[in-house]
Design brief:
Layout: E1 2-5, E2 17-24, E3 30-34, H1 43-55, E4 62-65, H2 84-111, E5 118-121, E6 124-127, E7 133-136, H3 137-146, E8 155-161, E9 169-179, E10 184-195, H4 202-221, E11 253-257, H5 280-292, H6 303-313
Parallel strand pairs: 3-4, 10-11
Antiparallel strand pairs: 1-9, 2-3, 2-8, 5-6, 6-7, 9-10
Helix pairs in contact: 1-2, 2-3, 4-5
Length: 316
């Protein structure tokens, strides 16, 4: 096994600023524009979920404009350090709450009902005490655009400076089979368990972990970028000679979450971007040590290096 702790962004080492822009459309749907870039990890979906949660909308009513452009997008410091759900999520939540406050304020002006007596739920303005519907969100949205006196589109354009951090924890358990004569290591079972706070989207979170563990297995057993010592030219900069694990090399990956609530993060989240890749390699290394008594402190543990290590230890 091997354990880790990590971070949710780079504070206090570096700035963690993120922006979000939300516009309420005439039909009661919203546009969400963020500077944070979805590189495949699913941040657009999670940000859409956050907005839908605050504004009482179904996901198909939240239109995420995922074309980041530094000329027009809200500012965001970047996609790095497992920060986006935690850091950029703070800005998204902040913008959504501001839009909700403005919606309720406009609804109160339309109905003369005190704002502290109404709420926004399931695309409706409702009485807090009874849940009785007062107006639809679409009615409020249309009026905010076309009221001859009070017209003022409901928007939020905000940023958040996250001067705080949260620490995710986790562990990998691995069982391996080692062929002493050939130096071949086979991963029989591997389990990756995380405390990443509240899991916003379980299916995407599990996929993130499976991808990270697969990367960790390659890091442990086969991946190594080689260079010509004279010219500096890379010798294996292609997918034939750079040995990424294929599906045939990847065991079934066990994924589990110990859910906690992180009070500093939006909806209790902590990071889950890079943590899945941290401990598979040391867990596999520790399993090899347990099986053979030989400690390997350089990666990858490919057959050549393992064979030489066993020979030096007297096993061969």
């Amino acid at each position: 096994m091997a354990c880790f702790s990590y971070s949710s962004g780079t504070f206090p080492v570096a700035l963690e600023l993120a922006g979000a822009r939300i516009v309420l459309n005439q039909d009661g749907s919203v546009q969400l524009q963020i500077g944070a870039t979805d590189t495949g990890q699913g941040s657009d979906t999670v940000f859409g979920q956050m907005v839908a949660e605050v504004l009482g909308l179904p996901m198909d009513m939240v239109h995420v404009l995922s074309t980041q452009d530094t000329d027009i997008s809200p500012f965001d410091t970047g996609c790095y350090a497992s920060r986006q759900t935690y850091v950029s999520g703070m800005a998204v939540e902040k913008a959504a709450l501001e839009v909700k406050e403005k919606i309720l304020g406009f609804a109160a002006s339309m109905t003369d009902i005190p704002v502290d007596r109404i709420d926004l739920l399931d695309q409706k303005i409702v009485y807090k005490h009874s849940g009785e519907s007062v107006l639809t969100l679409e009615q409020v949205a249309m009026q905010s655009y076309y009221d001859r006196v009070l017209a003022k589109p409901i928007t939020s354009d905000t940023s958040n400076n996250a001067r705080i951090n949260a620490v995710p924890f986790g562990v990998t358990f691995a069982e391996v089979e080692v062929d002493i004569k050939t130096g071949k290591i086979k991963v029989l079972e591997i389990y990756n368990v995380h405390d990443s706070g509240t899991i916003v989207n379980p299916q995407m979170a599990e996929g993130q972990v499976q991808g990270g563990v697969s990367m960790g297995i390659g890091y442990a057993l086969s991946e190594q970028l080689l260079f010509d010592e004279i010219t500096g030219k890379p010798l294996n900069n292609n997918l034939l000679d750079y040995k990424l694990p294929t599906i045939m090399d990847t065991p079934e990956i066990g994924v589990a979450f110990v859910e906690t609530y992180e009070p500093t993060g939006p909806y209790g989240v902590k990071s889950l971007g890079e943590p899945p890749v941290i401990t598979p390699a040391p867990a596999i290394r520790n399993a090899v040590l347990d099986a053979t008594g030989v400690a390997f402190n350089r990666l990858p543990m490919n057959p050549q290096r393992v064979f030489e290590g066993f020979k030096k230890a007297g096993l061969i």
